[in-house]
Amino acid sequence: MIKVGIIGVGTVGQSVANILEKNKALIGARAGKEISVVKGVVSNINKKRDVSIPLSDNVDDILDDDSIDIVVELMGGVDEPYKIVQKALSNGKAVVTANKALLAYHRYDLQKIAQDIPIGYEASVAGGIPIINALKVGLSANQITAIKGIMNGTCNYMLTKMMQEGVRYEDILQEAQDLGYAEADPTFDVGGFDAAHKLLILASIAYGIDAKPEDILIEGIENIGQDDIAFAKEFNYSIKLLAIAKKINTKIELRVHPVLIRNDQMIAKIDGVMNGVSVIGDCVGETLYYGPGAGGDATASAVIADIIEIVRAGQSSPMLGFKRPFQSENLILMPKEEIESEYYLRMLVDDAPGVLASIAQILGKHNISIETFLQRPSDNNKKATLLCATHECQEKYIIAAIKEIESLQSVNAKIVMIRIES
Amino acid sequence: MIKVGIIGVGTVGQSVANILEKNKALIGARAGKEISVVKGVVSNINKKRDVSIPLSDNVDDILDDDSIDIVVELMGGVDEPYKIVQKALSNGKAVVTANKALLAYHRYDLQKIAQDIPIGYEASVAGGIPIINALKVGLSANQITAIKGIMNGTCNYMLTKMMQEGVRYEDILQEAQDLGYAEADPTFDVGGFDAAHKLLILASIAYGIDAKPEDILIEGIENIGQDDIAFAKEFNYSIKLLAIAKKINTKIELRVHPVLIRNDQMIAKIDGVMNGVSVIGDCVGETLYYGPGAGGDATASAVIADIIEIVRAGQSSPMLGFKRPFQSENLILMPKEEIESEYYLRMLVDDAPGVLASIAQILGKHNISIETFLQRPSDNNKKATLLCATHECQEKYIIAAIKEIESLQSVNAKIVMIRIES
Fold it and tell me: CA-to-CA distance for A86 and B380, rounded, in angstroms?
């Protein structure tokens, strides 16, 4: 019998324990051995929980128990779980974690300690969607050309409501908080950091890139306004928060930000709290993986898949860990300023002669050519809103141009820039 | 070095050989060993092919070559590949096949011969989408509740064009044939048989069901007309050819037929030649897998993933073969007449008093209650088209009711019935 200890018995932990019990015969048959949760560790031992396993508030009751084979880490946070997972691995226990923040910072440190001890982390990216499995096994014939993921359900829920029902950002944020989709401090979700953590994990699998969140371009959805939604609708775009990895020769672009994306793209059709990851492989072309990105039972499905894989295949499984047997070349992170994209700009300007000309001139000076230009009357009749979509250019040029345009007397507010993903 | 022989070097076979060459370093790193295609067997040795491997027209050049480890079978057909795969397995060679027809009939026979020799068949279902991998590994914590697949690109292309552009069935069939999407005899695709073969393979994985195509409900898209498309549009449905497996207690429903399905369902959004498979698991809920269902390179991606898995994990891989370690209960095929669905009926009737009453009475007699009823004027002013959607009932009752309605003097043509998938 394989013995499992769960550290952190919240929503997901309770689901893991209960599903391992409910589907015991099935899971045992698939793993080839019986699997039992023998202990749970919680911070508040007095809180009532919906599980029948023995609970403790001392993490060493699991870490120092030689009979426990697999530690499931579901605490959240970075520093404390980092210490705990290090100790579990040092004690020879396999680890399964759903903790994307931990892995965004310490995946290679942990792999170094783990050596041949399996680390499972299917649940850390896109909840119940078996995307790690697809990347590592299902698409193993492919050089991965690009990954584009909707991996934060809160943002996707908010953007969907803004697009479909015309709700304003502030109002839908409040609603998402009331529904429990967004935290009291929503920065982690709406600022793009949660999606970035997941992107870094996928980028490690596809490209062996050892980047940290602060190394990559991360922008949130906080500045999306009604004018942007109207522009998107008019030109058949959706607005989505995408996490993007792209291989350009030997450089890897990694970025998280809102995009305007054509409605006929499959990933643009993923609405509400659901997640989806589109993967482009050099042989297969585009495949896309869709499902629930959060929730106790859905996340537990991925945690348990890893437990089964560890029992069945152990260290020989290609699904586990962050070793890098997958590259045939050394890939490096592309500097943010070299990233190329098309851009959409929204500018609030004085409704006066010459303004448009001076803006167009600045764009031209930075070698940025315009694809679409729209001027809308503003509420204030002395102001005008200019909406502009550019052809492809490097990030550094658009940033320089935006800075220069913003310095014009006739430009009245910070320019909103949204990248266009084609 | 692992040596591979390919039997059938057509579009897919050429892609397999060429990708194994192009991505050699990457694939070797992932498999842990170098993989080389050393021989190909073709029926017409004089035909020019885009590969650099030695070709032969004698299948025994591969089957009797002791140095060859893995045989890739890409011939198509049933009887001849069945003999060849049997011999390959008997000679101790692992087999990778994309041949759904072979597996629809002989998967358990082949597994019996194979014993512990791996058989890979990721490519046999939905081309480049790693759906076998998802079912066997990614979703291993789940009891599979249902599978709903768009697994025939020809049908999906035709139905998409009929919905989006109002093209008639006959015209779009001609176009699909001109584009090479449909064969001169399109029955295998449009009749639902190709999708049924794939469904039987998925049902073996999810449920261990040993059914053959003739055991299950298979209907094609040949009778879908303009009125049905108009009804679908009016009530926010799409029309799709779905292959459906559902677990109802210990019985498994297996069926392939066109459905009316709500536009907001993710699988309804899969358009054109693309494939998609929605899987409902008891823990994870719905996950969906989307991608190219055909094409040389896409199918080769799946073939090579199996080759890598065989090299890496061999007989210990859960991804390979049709052993049945996955059930905790014995499941049986549900008889067709017990399947429950909602139904849509299209009837051409005399535009005369009493006709509607007699139809409604027959439906009532069979305990079928009506959900929506529409009467449209017909081109012929003595005729009327009646469109009707029912609440859920068993297949046997709707069939009996249809038969009785068709026997009415006032009913002028065969009734078209489409199941509604909710």
Answer: 79
Q: Which residues of B touch A285 (CB under 8 A)?
A: 128, 291-292, 295, 297-298
In whole angstroms, what is the distance from residue A305 CA to residue A311 CA?
10
Catalytic residue selected from B136, B198, B240, B246 = B198
Structure tokens at A299: 């996340």
Give the residue, A79 or A313, on which the prediction is more confident. A79
Domains held by chain B: number: 3
Contacts of A47 (CB under 8 A, 6+ apart): none
CB nearest to A283's CB, from B139, B300, B316: B300
Q: B225 CB near a chain A CB, below 8 Å? A: no
Which chain B residues are Cβ-neighbours of A292 within 8 angstroms? 284-287
CATH code, A174: 3.30.360.10
Is B85 a member of any domain?
yes
**Is B287 close to A282, i.e. CB distance below 8 A?**
no
Q: How confident is the model at residue A326 (pLDDT cuts 50, 70, 90)?
A: low
E strand map for A249-330: 251-262, 274-281, 285-292
- Model ipTM value: 0.96
Residue A233 a catalytic site member: no
Give me Rg for the CA atoms of chain B: 24
d(C-alpha B33, C-alpha B30), whole Å: 8
More confident residue, B382 or A244: A244
112-151 of B, contacting A, C-beta below 8 A: 122, 128-130, 133-134, 137-143
φ and ψ at B211, to 5 degrees?
A: -105, 160
Residue of B283, B301, B311, B326 to mutate for A, most A C-beta atoms under 10 A: B283
CB A117 within 8 A of CB A315: yes
CATH code of residue B390: 3.30.70.260
Band (B375; pLDDT cuts 50, 70, 90): confident
Over the stretch A230-288, which tens digit does the pLDDT of each residue have?
Answer: 999 999 999 999 999 999 999 999 999 999 999 999 999 999 999 999 999 999 999 99
Distances (CA, A) of A357 to A352, B121, B223: 11, 62, 60
The label of the residue with tokens 């793993």 reads A31
Q: Give burial (CB, 10 Å; 0-12/13-18/19+) of A21.
A: middle
Domain residue limits at B202: 133-291
Predicted TM-score (pTM) of this structure: 0.96
pLDDT at B86 over 90: yes
Is A137–B137 a contact, with Cβ atoms under 8 angstroms apart?
A: yes
First-to-last C-alpha distance (Å) of chain B: 51
Q: Are residues A23 and A10 in the same domain?
A: yes
Using CB atoms, which residue from A23, A141, A289 is nearest to B27? A141
Q: Is A320 on the interface with B (CB under 8 A)?
A: no
Domain membership of residue B327 (yes or no) is no
Strand partners, A333: A252
Answer yes or no: is A38 within a domain: yes
pLDDT > 90? residue A6: yes
**Is the Cβ–Cβ distance between A281 and A148 less than 8 Å?**
no
